[in-house]
Batch of 2 targets.
Target 1
Amino acid sequence: MLVSESVGQFFLDSEGHRDRLEYTEYGSGDSWVVLLHGQLMPRRMQQPLARALAAEGLHVVTLDLLGHGRSDRPADPQAYSVTAFAEQVLALLDHLGAPQAVIGGTSLGANVSLEVAAIAPERVRGLIVEMPVLDNAVEAGIIAFAPLLLAARFAPISVTALRLATRWVPRRAVGFWPSIVLDTLDQRPAPMGAVVHGLFFGRVAPPARERRTITAPAIVVGHPADPIHPFADAQMLAGELPNATFVEAGSILEWRYRPERLDRIATNFALSCWRAPRRARRASRSTS
């Protein structure tokens, strides 16, 4: 089934700065779903799932968070935190006129989805959380991303050279997921360093005591043998969230190259969230 697709943008004003964020809409209607990308990746990584969801009648939006994809990329580390990203998602919902949405994401996007549910539970219809980065991922995260921060700060020419080299590769010639990898490598040193710095030294996700208060229905997808996104984190999160279902992926590649099963699970879940009666709006943040 073909679905409509359109690109949009909106602007955020804060402390004398005006930042532009870009998004893509798939489908139409009032059953909103927002999908968020992984760290340093573009929103286009969620295109296959967005199309699958929209084909079933959901109105899906993929967003480039600040510092990613085609959104603005300020070089100030203070511009980047999981909380700031969550506020960008809420600004997107306001811009679209969407009172609520199912919020979902991968890796960084998973953590941002949890943060949205923590700071604005009344806006969240449900959660699709793939590969959250929580307590068991600290060491792996440092190993994976510290070299990027060091390269951006002390060897910026290496980041620039890689960016220039990857830009010569035709995206259509290499296939979808290799092209996403190439787009992820298309970084500028200062903004990339700022993103990693901001996330390293800021709040990574809601702490356990806050996660336990998130009552939105959720599916949590974990991958075995994934060192950066430990299986134990996904299992732990599914146990903490009062209304969560744990889904075990066959591998980190299943949702990339054999997505039918997980697409079906995500679609059925999102549709069920919108078929359920709307929860009463809560005026303030949940506390424990």
Note: The CA atoms of residues 220 and 237 lie 7 Å apart.
Target 2
Amino acid sequence: MPPINEIIVFIAVLAGAGAIAGFLAGLFGIGGGAILVPVLYEAFRWFDTPDSVRTHLAIGTSLAVIVPTSLSSFRAHYKRKAPDMDLLKSWLLPVPLGVAAASVIAAGTSGEILRSIFALLAAAMGLKLIFSKDATSVGDRLPRNPAKAMVGFVIGLLSALMGVGGGILNNTFMTMFGRPVHQAIATSSGVGVLISLPGVIGFIWAGWGAEGLPAFSTGYVNWLAVALTIPMTMLAAPQGARIAHGLDRKQLSLALGVFMIIVASRFTWSLFAG
């Protein structure tokens, strides 16, 4: 058991991360996993969690936190009738199927590979946020099936492998096809629900019986970290959603992009540092 001062820091860090993640969930339509995964990865180090399961545990726990965060954010956006419900209904199967595929991959993948995937995708997302002013338009309407279903599957797959809610990927997809950015953000909160709910089940299954998991873990989900983080995300998500409808987010997008690059660099460094 870590010293009491380290436990206090652990609680404070997770509470702060939860507030930031919840605010970003509402503001950008993301689940906050980009914030939570690296914080959880470092936090579990204090509890002597083996490197072989630490990345998996950070991703699975992040997905568990995203469940209420996404629900709260989606509820706030839905009250404004902002999400594209037709798109969400069409993705009720493809997105969870992508998440299920990610769970199978995670079950047989090392922590190093998962960190590599996270670092690569985080760097790509960060560069996109920093250098892309607007998404390049490729059409004025969303593609039809099977292309639309395939996009949903890929968003579910990549997002679950990162422990994120899919907001950045879905925002890019929708705005590329002429959808207003505020509608894309609102819809992304619903995509987060489609990713996080099956993601929790999948990562519990993937980590069932794994060795070295800290106390209060079920598979690759640590419920102590979930309990410490969720209250702050629930409080902050509606505030982010409210501000999203009237705020110029360019500077915040830049800040999030820089953060993603830093996280990608940190995870890349950990691959070589051991």
Note: The mean pLDDT is 83.
